[in-house]
Structures are given as structure tokens and as C-alpha cells.
Automatic annotation (TrEMBL), chain A:
UniProt GO cellular component terms: cytosol
Keyword Iron listed: no
Gene name for this UniProt entry: mocs3
Molecular-function GO terms, alphabetical: ATP binding; metal ion binding; molybdopterin-synthase adenylyltransferase activity; molybdopterin-synthase sulfurtransferase activity; thiosulfate-cyanide sulfurtransferase activity; URM1 activating enzyme activity
Enzyme Commission no: 2.7.7.80, 2.8.1.11
Protein name: Adenylyltransferase and sulfurtransferase MOCS3
Organism listed in the record: Chanos chanos (Milkfish)
SS bond partners: 316-324
TrEMBL record, chain B:
Pathway membership, UniProt: tRNA modification; 5-methoxycarbonylmethyl-2-thiouridine-tRNA biosynthesis
Compartment(s): Cytoplasm
Name the record gives this protein: Ubiquitin-related modifier 1
BP GO annotations: protein urmylation; tRNA thio-modification; tRNA wobble uridine modification
Residue list for modification 1-thioglycine: 101
GO cellular component: cytosol
Organism of derivation: Chanos chanos (Milkfish)
Length: 459, 101
């Protein structure tokens, strides 16, 4: 009898716990939908955040470990809760940045990204998940952040920042974080911040390196003070071309979050006239003293010529995305499609397939019968590689037993470098090499994977 | 006559790719009648270290847009840019601006 009572009591306690858990879950879901605004595809006006008079007990519990810091304290925490931050780009920098801002109790986060989540984002864009593939990044990030801290208001913007919408958007936020991935957007964000008087916390990353600066803050320089002229487009490398180790933008995004939190809480950033450089290969940080605000600056100087936003894509000569450019260097007769190459391959007609990608990419995947000579070796006329090419062509010539030119087909990842290689090989044909007829394969190995061999890896 | 001077040159942010991927270079500039300045150093780098495509590094007599020059950990704008007179053991960094994220 007594045992039965005990067992029933135990069951009852378990059920009570289960009920409490379910009630909590219902509350949580209610809060999620409150804190997470609908996906915005245009700019709407949001009411300014109301300052809180005091912290609730739940706030005190939640933020206790940072409230203990004299640098932050109760006032700093209250300041965070009334600050709004616009995150331009929800990628490798924006994800860790937004994550720490939400965790720390920032008031409102605007999350802007025009792109959707892809599999090759997940190694560094750590708010997105396998379940979110194909979703707008802004929405995927907002959902993850609302799960982390439902008190933070997240506004996802699924749109491209443009000269038409940037001012209207940016003036609704107190601080802007540039987490973008291309040059035109960096100039656009800078100019919009100068014109609206917003501090700009800017970071960037590529390969194993990162850079961080706070612009337009407490009389310091803006991005244009440092870089009055945009770099030539051919000198700009993006993450999809140059690669990036995921943790490197992670580190830079965290540093960016630190500076945003210092500004938002009232401590102030300490790097308004400094460039922080991180070298992940040598695990080394370095702080550089920068020039002051320039009187001659086109946007923040004494007699500015930029008084409204411009066309930044034409100013920079490149598109406001990090997608790869498509070059068109060769006439149609000098290019073949992957379908045409497939039939040449199937006919077993003698030819040379030359893969001009760097060897690190050839290690990822290649066509078995190709010869790899990287574009850089052709450019530098690297002797061992040129000898190998010459021998291969001579052997083919002997095998063909005709006076016809040896057909050479050049392939790379997307069909840009292959065109440059064709131009170089044409100059070498008949002098450094036997006479060859050289063409490139349009769209490269990625087109091969899409149209000919679906089992070929894409990267 | 100014004595030869030894410099530590560093390239980063991708600028090292124009120098065989090597980030650190210790170089000695020969003695000449006038002291070496940054303008002459750039011409010397172009003539002695850059093999291919110098336009990706220098433009006119300065560096191309998008490369920041640092002299002993300070922006060269604070040091006189092209006119800065080099001292023995100076540390000169050429850093290409990153844009990825």
C-alpha cells in the first residue's frame, strides 16, 4: 500500500515537471514570435526602442556574469537594451557578431542579407544550419538569434543594400556593423554612415587574415579617408575565389562584437584611429596607428563632393556581390562548350586537356586525363612546367602523324583563368611550343559537373 | 655618401602573392649619395623584387589603390608618405585591404 503511494507520488512529480517544461515551451514560442519580426523585403519604419528604467530579476540572472564587470554594470546593461545595431551581411562575420550581441542583450538587431543559405556557407556562417539550406540568410539568422535570446528584437531584411534604401535604413539604427563581402557595399555603407552620423564598426577576412577598424567615430577617419580610390577590380579577391578558414572571420566577427558592445554600453571603442590586423597563420595581432580624419576626404572632409549616395558599382567597377565575375576575353570561335568537349573526348581524337587551376584545387577534383599547369606557372614561364608542356605537345604531334596543329583545350573552375591561359598559349605557339590550336572550355569544370557528369564534385 | 641600409619588408593581405607568397623579406639597399626615401624604395622594389605584373603593386610612383603602407607600425600618411627618409632597420609593411566576409 505504502509502496503504491510512493510510486504514484513519484509519477505525479514527473508529470508535474513535464507540465512545467511544456508550459515553458509554450511561453517561449509566444516570445519567439513577438521578438522575431516578419521577413522584410522593403524598408519600413520601426518605432525607436524605449529605454528601460531598471533590470528585471530575470535580466539580472541572465546577465549576472557581465553585470559584475565594473566596465559594464547595470547602467551599461540598460544602455545595451536601448541600442539598435544594423548588421550588413549575415555571413562569416555577421553570424558570430550578431550571436554575441544577442547573447549580451542588445535591444534590436537589423539583419540584412540578400542571399540564401548554401551548403558552402556552413563552415563559417555558424548561425545557419543544414535545416536552413535555401532559406534567406536574414531569416535563418533571426530565427537562431531569437532562440538564443527572445528579449532581443530581430528584424530580418532580405534585400540588397542600395543607394536608394541605405539612408532610410541606416538612420533607424544607432550603430552599423559592416560584415559585407564586396568593395561597392563597403563604400556605400561608409558614405551612408557619414551622411547619417553613425559609427561604423567594420571588419573583413580572407584566407587566414583579418582586419578591423571603427570608422566615423569620435572625430576619427572614415573608410574614404583611408581609401580615397577603390582598388582596381582585378586586384580584389573574394572568399569564393581565395578561400577562407571559417574561424578567421569568426575571430574578426567576435572582435567586431566587442567594439559594438563597448560603444553601445557607453564605454566607447578604443580603436577609432587604428587598424587591427590578425594573421591566423602566425597567430599574431597587430595594431596600427592610422591617419586622422582627412580634410580632403570626399565625404567627411571640409568641402565634401559626395553629399548624397552614388552609384557604387560603377565607382568601383565591380558588382556588389561576392559572386564570381564572368570574363569574356575570347571570341566565340576560340571557346567550346562542355558538350562539345564531351564529344571530342568520346571520339578519342588526340588532344591535350590542360587544367590551369592551382594545385590545391586540382587535389579537390580533376578530370583524369588532364595535365595540370597552374596559370601562375604559365605567367612566370616556370621552366619545369613549360618543359613538361612542350614534351607533351611534341609527343602528341608525333602520335598524330600529320602537319596539323595539336589541339589544346584549356579548362579551369569557371572559365575565366582558362581564357587568360589561351591568350598566353597563343603567344607561345610556334615559338616556345610546337604550333597548337588552343581553345578554352566555357564554364569550366563547374559547367562539366552541372551538364555532363553530376557525380563530379562542385566547390 | 649615405651608408647601405638594412630594411625589413613585410607583405600581407594577399600582397605577398606578388612576391612568391613570401611575407617577410630582409633587404639591404646599397649606399648612394642621397639618403633613401620611400619613393626610391618603391622604384627599387619594382626593379629588384617584382617579377610579373608590377601594376598590381605600383601605380605611377606610388602604390596602387587598396594597398596600405605602414612605416614602423604607423600609417605612412603620418610619416610623410613618399618623402619619408628611410632609416637603417626600418620596418615597412605593405598590406592589401581585405574585403571578404
Amino acid at each position: 500500500m505504502e509502496e503504491d503511494v510512493l510510486s504514484l507520488r513519484k509519477q505525479l512529480m514527473e508529470k508535474d515537471r513535464e507540465i512545467a517544461f511544456l508550459k515553458g515551451k509554450i511561453d517561449q514560442l509566444g516570445k519567439d514570435s513577438e521578438s522575431l519580426r516578419q521577413l522584410q523585403d522593403k524598408i519600413t519604419l520601426h518605432a525607436p526602442l524605449k529605454p528601460k528604467a531598471s533590470l528585471t530579476n530575470a535580466d539580472i540572472m541572465r546577465y549576472s556574469r557581465q553585470l559584475l564587470l565594473p566596465e559594464l554594470g547595470v547602467q551599461g546593461q540598460l544602455n545595451l537594451s536601448k541600442t539598435s545595431v544594423l548588421v550588413v551581411g549575415c555571413g562569416g562575420l555577421g553570424c558570430p557578431l550578431a550571436q554575441y550581441l544577442a547573447a549580451a542583450g542588445i535591444g534590436r538587431l537589423g539583419l540584412l542579407d540578400y542571399d540564401d543559405v548554401e551548403l558552402n556557407n556552413l563552415h563559417r556562417q555558424i548561425l545557419h544550419t543544414e535545416q536552413g539550406l535555401g532559406q534567406p540568410k536574414a531569416l535563418s539568422a533571426a530565427q537562431a538569434l531569437s532562440r538564443l535570446n527572445s528579449a532581443v528584437e530581430c528584424i530580418p531584411y532580405h534585400l540588397q543594400l542600395s543607394p536608394e534604401n541605405a539612408l532610410e535604413l541606416i538612420q533607424q539604427y544607432d550603430i552599423v556593423a559592416d560584415c559585407s563581402d564586396n568593395v561597392p557595399t563597403r563604400y556605400l555603407v561608409n558614405d551612408a554612415c557619414v551622411l547619417t552620423g553613425r559609427p561604423l564598426v567594420s571588419a573583413s577576412a580572407l584566407r587566414m587574415e583579418g582586419q578591423l577598424t571603427v570608422y566615423n567615430y569620435r572625430g576619427g577617419p572614415c573608410y574614404r579617408c583611408l581609401y580615397p580610390k577603390p582598388p582596381p577590380p582585378e586586384t580584389v579577391t573574394n572568399c569564393s575565389d581565395g578561400g577562407v578558414l571559417g574561424v578567421v572571420p569568426g575571430i574578426m566577427g567576435c572582435l567586431q562584437a566587442l567594439e559594438v558592445l563597448k560603444i553601445a554600453s557607453g564605454q566607447g571603442s578604443s580603436i577609432e584611429q587604428q587598424l587591427v590586423m590578425f594573421d591566423g597563420q602566425e597567430t599574431r595581432f597587430r595594431s596600427i596607428r592610422l591617419r586622422p580624419k582627412q580634410a580632403s576626404c570626399a565625404v567627411c572632409g571640409e568641402t565634401p563632393t559626395v553629399t548624397e549616395l552614388q552609384n557604387y558599382e560603377s565607382f568601383c567597377g565591380s558588382a556588389a556581390t561576392d559572386k564570381c565575375r564572368r570574363l569574356n576575353l575570347l571570341p566565340k570561335e576560340q571557346r567550346i562548350t562542355v558538350l562539345e568537349y564531351k564529344s571530342i573526348q568520346d571520339s578519342s581524337a588526340p588532344h591535350l586537356l590542360l587544367d590551369v587551376r592551382p594545385s590545391v584545387e586540382v587535389d579537390i577534383c580533376h578530370l583524369s586525363h588532364s595535365l595540370n599547369i597552374p596559370l601562375a606557372s604559365l605567367e612566370n614561364k616556370k621552366s619545369g612546367d613549360i618543359d613538361q608542356l612542350r614534351e607533351k605537345i611534341s609527343a602528341l604531334k608525333t602520335q598524330m602523324k600529320t602537319d596539323l596543329e595539336v589541339p589544346v583545350f584549356v579548362v579551369c573552375k569557371l572559365g575565366n583563368d582558362s581564357q587568360k591561359a589561351v591568350q598566353m598559349l597563343e603567344k607561345m605557339s610556334g615559338c616556345e611550343l610546337e604550333r597548337i590550336s588552343v581553345k578554352d572550355i566555357c564554364g569550366g569544370l563547374m559547367a562539366w559537373a552541372q551538364k555532363i557528369d553530376p557525380s563530379f564534385p562542385q566547390y | 655618401m649615405a651608408a647601405p641600409i638594412a630594411l625589413h619588408l613585410e607583405f600581407g593581405g594577399g600582397a605577398e602573392l606578388l612576391f612568391d607568397g613570401v611575407k617577410n623579406h630582409h633587404v639591404t639597399l646599397p649606399s648612394q649619395s642621397e639618403p633613401w626615401d620611400m619613393r626610391q624604395l618603391l622604384a627599387w622594389i619594382r626593379g629588384n623584387m617584382l617579377k610579373e605584373r608590377p601594376e598590381l603593386f605600383v601605380q605611377g610612383e606610388s602604390v596602387r589603390p587598396g594597398i596600405l603602407v605602414l612605416i614602423n607600425d604607423a600609417d605612412w600618411e603620418l610619416m610623410g608618405e613618399l618623402e619619408y627618409q628611410l632609416q637603417d632597420q626600418d620596418n615597412i609593411i605593405f598590406i592589401s585591404t581585405l574585403h571578404g566576409g
